[in-house]
Amino acid sequence: MAEIMSARIPTRSRREAMDWSLVLVSQGIDTAIDFTEESGWILTVPDHELIRARDTLRQYRSENRQWPWRQTVSREGVLFDWGSLAWVILISFFYWMQTHRGPGFEVAGLMDAAAVSRGEWWRFFTAVFLHADIGHLALNASIGVVLLGLTMGNLGTGVGLLAAYLAGAGGNVATW
Hints:
By secondary structure, the chain is mainly alpha-helical. It has two domains: about 5-65, Hypothetical protein rpa1041 (Alpha-Beta Plaits), CATH 3.30.70; about 85-175, no CATH class. Helix content is about 55%, strand content about 10%. It has a three-stranded antiparallel beta sheet. The longest helix is centred in the C-terminal third of the chain and has 22 residues, at about 135-155.
């Protein structure tokens, strides 16, 4: 059996070796990551793929230079966004509206499967803000402020709020 010759591409770190390996594999270039004390982190590719591998990595580096989406995230301690308290205030306001504005406000937004089946699709989204009683509101607010605060702290305020809102709407779709 013929021995396949391999070429080595040095990298600066384990992370870079892993990133570059993923780039090469995505382009159909077989690669292996190796580490030795004297050489550090190395990518090994078949000899006949060396030129294509170097060209691919050169293109990858030029396309990702000064990439604006990369941000350093501090992972020290628990990331919590106290903006989740604004969400508690918002759902409390809707509960107050629901109890003090008469039954019309509540009936217009409730999750009603028959009404949704007749085309009132917005009920999936409006029902997220309505609560059956003060106990239901208190439970959602107490658990929600913690879970939403952690989600918003880790994913960002907008993404966390959108995820929670869509999860609530998704629950209504499942109920329907």
